[in-house]
Amino acid sequence: MPSGYGFELTFRLKREACDKSPPTWPAELMQSLARYVFKTENALCEGDHISWHSSLDKGDSRIQHILLCQDPQLSTIDTPLGYI
């Protein structure tokens, strides 16, 4: 049985040499996705495509879409409350 919704959100972002600290927009983006799942009870699945309809970083980026995939560095784990 899955724990909670059966998934965890992770985000990979290349750090630029000029970055002094990590950007906050990925956490804000994932928080928005989590709110959506909590409010609608719709699960997110590997392969889902999400159109954001605006720049993901709320800046000049032209990236406005998210494609969900399995994190290659994390595997499924079993917990007392189910697997994630």
The overall strand count is 4
Mean pLDDT: 88
SSE topology string = HEEEE
Outline type: globular
Bin the strand percentage: 5-15%
Distance between the termini: 9 Å
Structural class computed from helices and strand pairing: alpha+beta
- Helix coverage percent: 10-25%
Count every helix, treating DSSP H or I runs of 4 or more residues as helices: 1
- In which order are the strands of the major sheet placed? 1-2
Gyration radius, in Å: 15 Å
Low-confidence stretches: none
Largest sheet: 2 strands, antiparallel
Describe the structure.
With 84 residues, this protein is α+β, with helices and mostly antiparallel strands. 19% of the residues lie in helices and 12% in strands. It contains one helix and four strands. The strands form two sheets. A two-stranded antiparallel sheet has the order 1-2. The chain has a two-stranded antiparallel ribbon with strand order 3-4. The protein is globular and about 40 Å long. 0% of the residues are buried. The model has no long low-confidence stretch (mean pLDDT 88).
